[in-house]
Amino acid sequence: MAANEKAQAKTEQAKGKIKEAAGRTTGNDRLTAEGRTDQAKGDAREAKEKAKDVFDQ
Length: 57
Known about the structure:
The chain is mainly alpha-helical and 57 residues long. The chain is built from two helices and no strands. The radius of gyration is 13 Å and the shape is elongated. The mean pLDDT is 92.
């Protein structure tokens, strides 16, 4: 289960980076903000999984 969550975190981060870049390219502030939000969600999910790994050992 943890590997799946980690993969989702990486996917969310990548999706966010793509959205942010697309928003910057097109001048769409909303899309840029959505991209940053997606990246933050991915970062939070990754941090949660790392914390779980530390406490599970």
